[in-house]
Every structure is written in C-alpha cells, then in structure tokens.
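Appendix B. Extra example for self-study. Work through it before the problem class; the solution is given directly after the inputs so you can check yourself.
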Amino acid sequence: MNIILKIAWRNVWRNPRRSLVLISSIAVGVFGYMGTTAFSRGFLNQMVDSTIDLGGGHITISARGFHENPNINLFIAEPQRTESVLRQTPGIRTAPLVSLSGMVNSSETAAGAIINGIDPEHEPGITVISRSIAEGRYLGAAPARPEIVVGVELAKKLNVTLGEKIVLMISDLDNNISSGAYRICGLYQVSSKEFEKVNVYISMPEAQKLAGYGSAITACNIRLEDPEKVLDIAHSFSTALEGEPLEVLTWRDRNKLLEMAIATYDYSLLLTLIILFTAIAFSIANAFLMVIYERIQEFGIMMANGVLPRKIRGMLYTETFFITLLGLAMGFVASFTVFGYWSVAGLDLSNFASGLSTFGVGTTIYPAFVTYDIVLAIVVINIIVLASVLYPSIKASRFEVVDAIRFV
Amino acid sequence: MNTVELSRVTKIYQDKNKIPVKAVDGVDLEIQAGEFTAIAGPSGSGKTTLLNIIGGLDKPTSGGVQVGGQDLTALSRDKLAEFRLNTLGFIFQAYNLIPVLTAEENAEFMLLLQGVSAQERHTRVKQEFAELGIAAELMHRRPNELSGGQQQRVAVARALVSHPQLILADEPTANLDSKTGSVLLDKMKEMNEKKGVTFIFSTHDPMVMQRARRLITLKDGKIVEDVNHR
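Solution. Structure tokens for the complete assembly:
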C-alpha cells in the first residue's frame, strides 16, 4: 500500500473518539438526507401511482380540449379510428371511457359527481377500482338491471348502502336533463377520499344512453407494460392520429402540479443536501484544524525527509476521504435498514397525517430509494467535505519546515 | 571533493519583539566528503540554524549554500524536498519518528518515497537494524512501544538506509543516557569509516566532540574555532 495512504488510514484511528464523532456526524447527515429523500420519493411515487391507477392509466386519448374543459360536447365521435391505431401498438392495455359531469341523488341528499361509463371487461386493466371493492362486487359484464359502483365516502355522504338505488342526472347533448336510477352493487375504497367522494362507475352503454352519445366515447385510456416508454408511445399516437380533433396526454400532462413537483424536487433535494452538509463541513474543518495543530511537527519531519508539500495535502484529503467513506457507509447502512424496512412494511401516519389522502397517497407511506439520490449524496458530500479541509490542508503544506520541526 | 560549501552565509531572524537577531553571521565553511564533523558552541550560538541551512530546511538571508554540487538557495520548495529525499539523512534530538508507522516502516520511509522495491527495502532495513543492534522483534513495534535509545536507533537507521551523501544530526544524544548515546555514536562512527558517509553534528555533548575528527566552534553566529583532528 502507498505509504501516504497507509499513514492517512492509520491517522484516522489515531484519535478514534474524534474520528468516530466526525464519522457519526456524516452518518447522521446521510441518514437525515436519505430519510427526507426516501419519504419524499415514496410520497411522489404514490401520487404518481394514484394518478395512473385512478386517473386513466399512462396515456389518455380524448377530444381536443376535453382535459381542460370536460364539456359533454367534446367527445370522440368515431372511436373505431382510434381503436385501430391502438390495436397496432404492442405492450399496451386499453379501455374506452365515457366521462360525464352530473349529479347523484339519494333519497336524502345530492352531490356533484363524475360519472364514469366503463367497459367492465377492459377497465380493470387500466384502473384499480375493480380491485378496490370494499363491499359488494364490481360491475357485471351484462347486468339485468342498471347498476353502479360508488366510493365509500360518497355512500356515507349520500347516506346510502349496498343494494339501494341512487339517481344520476346530467345535462345531455341536447341540453335536456337526462337521468337514470341505478342500484348500488359495490362500494370501492381507494387511497384518496376526495376521489371516492365524486367518482361513480356505471357501464359504458348506460353512460352513452345518459349522454345521448350513441357509440361515441369521451376518452380512450391506455396502460403500458413498460412505463418508461410513455413518451415514445404517446408521440407515436400523436403522429398516427395527426389531423384528428384529438389530444394525446400522458399522466404528466394530466397532472401538471405533480409534474412540476417532480421537476422541482431534484433541485430542492440538492439544496437540502448542500445546506445540511455545509453545516457539517464547518465542524469537520474545525476538527481538521485541530488535527493540523497537533501534527505540525510531524508534517515538518515528513517534509524534512523529502515529502512534497502536495503529498501532505494529499494525505489530509485521503484521511478526510476515508472518514467520509466510513460516514457514508454507516449512514447508508442505517438508512437502508430503517427506511428499507418501511419501504416494504410501510409507515402508517394515520394518527397524525390523515390529510395525506387529499393527495391521493393514503396514510401509509412507503419510502423509496432512487439511485440518483444516492449518487448525488456520494458526490456532493465528498465535494463539500473535501472542500472543508481545503484550507486546513493548504495551511499544513505551507508551514516552513524549520518552523514546523520546532513547533511544540 | 567538497560536500558542503558555505560562503558568507548570514541568517537574520526577527525575535518576538520584531527585533532582528543575527543567528549566523557571515560564515564561510567547506566540509569534504567522508568527514565526521561536530559543530559545537553554547546555546544560541547558531549551530542548529547552520545545520538547517546546510540541510535546506532553512534559507540564509544572504550568502551561498552548495551541498552535493547543488545551489540550495536557487531551489524551490518542491525541489528542496526532492533534494533532501535523495541526498540527505536527518537525525533529530527528539527522534521524530512517525507515530502511526512501525519501526520498520519508519526506517524504510524514505525508501518508499524513493520508490525502492519491497524486497530491496526489506533487505536494507534488516541490514541496518542488524548493524545498529535493533532486535528483530522490535521491527513491528510503533515508536510509543520503544525506549528513547531504540527510537533514536530507528531514526539513525531511517537516515542511513537510503544511502545519503550527507547525514545531519541535530543534538542526537541529548535525550539519551550516556551509555546509549556512546553506543549509538560508535555505530555512527563505524558507518562513517566503513561506508564513507559524511556526518555533521550540532552538539554540546563532549562524547560527540571527542569522536569528531573536525570540531567547529560557533559563537554568536560566527566560527571562532575550526580544529581538524585528522
């Protein structure tokens, strides 16, 4: 082993208590950073999942302007053209949707609702509603009587239970009131209470009848086997459907706020990391200044024996690097152990964060690790910590040999 | 051939009150290869300063310093470090071993910096340790596990093992008992006679002065006596 590396490594353990304090301060910083990032990533991932699982898959094709203004007059009149384009694309699942804004009435009260007309055979491939039935069952493929699935929260609000009838009302294409009575066949429960309060599900033919659409639909939802291809596939749809009065939207386009949160998160993460470790860097710089004052004579002896000043600096950098590596390792081990456990088991925050369901993430958070965050931590922490010993190490290498040897 | 040539070397320090103090005052000195020289004189006479100037550890305020054919006043910090590594060996009063290295690693320190192979290092260190009477079981001990005499022997081994042209020893026996100091001086004298290594001591130890073939006496930074016993 190189003699300078050997001396640097042994110097780390020369004052074990001080080194352990430095290593621990880095480890605690890493643990704090990893906790912040893992919970934030988990939170964002769950919001993304919620957007995809509840909001129509990875890609939605709808009439142009429908997303901004879900007007009943904006629909896909000839869905066959869109379906033929989708059939040519491998690795996707699709389901048509008729989405209408209206009112839902029980015998006691009424509420605004988004009425989702779905194909019970294909819709389970897009959203999680069919797998989120808390009571009763999902919509049948060909029910004898009109039936409806409502959210648990909406059922509470309307004070209705399974088997009871509720009435849906909308203003149809001719601006006439159109209504129908539906028996509740199932109650669903998802991560977002807000979603449960407004979304109801009936069969697509029933919705088309309510709206007066005939065979028209309002959207075609698409779920990808490989979510990484979302932009490529969305682009290919846009190209194939060019000239049609349609818009192809990815989940990011549908939820701009989330898109913005994700885009800005990386910057806020970097800022958090810099602030956290700049504070730690001052204590490291202070410790190394003490180290240098303790070893001035030793540096003098080394330089007298022919060690170049830059090697003295290199030795101190190496010593810091070893301390940083140990701190990183300790911090990562603790983070992966604690947050890794929660990433599988989940951390139930229901006692003090029930408002999380507003964001569609539920009250159980699953922290997530992202390679970028880990690499960022390793690079930024090393840079900041090494920068913190820049001054002490330059100072050490600039001592006059004769003064350093005499230093007591 | 002269190993050391000093011409009109003066070194002026500023003391704590910023008052200039002449530590070395216009010294002219020539030391030939293979000499065993002691620089003596009372405290504050400029012995250590002169030794530091010869070793390139300190720069003179004025005058010329040639060691091993190199003009030390013209060398940069890095070049001076390289010069010391390849030309000189130092023995200090306080041993000054590197505390985190074992006796063997301390002794081979300069060889490691010179890039000498592991086998060659091991052979040379083993040989020097044997010649200086350092027991094999001490090789893997750290300085704090060695006595003062043992540490100084390791320091001598460190200075000798790289086969320098010149060894500068600053009060090497000051912290040793007279028996240990005497044994060590005999060893250094033997190295000088056997290997022709040039030694320059700064000392006020009579044992060193007795063994020196040339005794230079300094007073107030000036050479007041230069006696050659050859």
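Self-check: Chain A touches chain B at residues 3, 6-7, 10-11, 14, 297-298, 301-310, 400-402, 405 (CB under 8 Å). If your reasoning did not lead you there, revisit section 3.
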